[in-house]
User: What shape does this take?
Amino acid sequence: MSAISIENLSKIYPPNFPRLKKFFRLQVEKEVEALRNVSIEIADGEIFGLIGKNGAGKTTLTKIIATLVQPTNGKVSVKGFDSIDDEVKVRSLIGLATAEERSFYWRLSIERNMMFFARLYAMDDRRARKRIDEIFEKLNLNELRNRRFSELSTGNKQKLAVARALLPSPPVLLLDEPTRSLDPLAAAEMRTLIASLENISVLLTSHNLNEIEQLCDRVAIISKGEIRDIDTTENLRRKTKTAQTVRIYLSKIEEHKIREKLFGILDKFSIEREKDFLKLTFERESDDELLGKIVSALTANGAIILDVETEKATLLNVLESYDLPTED
Assistant: This one.
């Protein structure tokens, strides 16, 4: 059984007050198709990444899984429970942390906030305090436990949102931009925490593509409400034709000889002299045979290859190759 199963999910937002606007001869907006035929299976214990531009549908999908928004069509189940028919059960299985959290009580300390939500989860005070102590220790929030929520920095408010999501020890965690607004050290600590979670399935949305690559077992690319591909980051790179920068460091050959040997093989390249060697730089497709042809042509003329550097396609390259223009 999958932790999260999404089948042919669609969500359409109709225009607001269309009849009233027509009556007053105001322009009626078009309906917005936020999601279109989305299907995803997330396994137990998997950290699954979801990436796309602003407006691609990431937050809408997260809210539907969390039962905060109902789909227009399709089905979502969490641990085998339907998000509509078993709404209460699904909510008990999910911890949700969003990038712009507004449901905390600003005049209460963060410890009192957590106790309040613990009671909503039907946790007794002893169990709640023990669990809060554990989470505050992991997120370095102990020194702030008596601080009012309103006095926290944006980054610490974000950390508290993740702390609340972890409070009931849910088997499924939905993290929408969990390191947004965190300083580099706090962000690194958050990633370490997420990676250390055991027996928890995580759906992670983020604009930090390095974070996605570091944490996620698989990644889904979403654009204009549609899933373009789902795979590991390495496989996504292999399937996506992207330019790769190559640098070859050479000795025992003159610049004019390099240009002569590359004539007809390579159109655009640069040659720089660095101390006792030459650096040849060019771009190629990641799966073509160009590098082999160049190395053969140069070594046949007596050149010695000192080193070859290649810059692999990044997840940003992959995203751009799949992505379509969207509106924020």
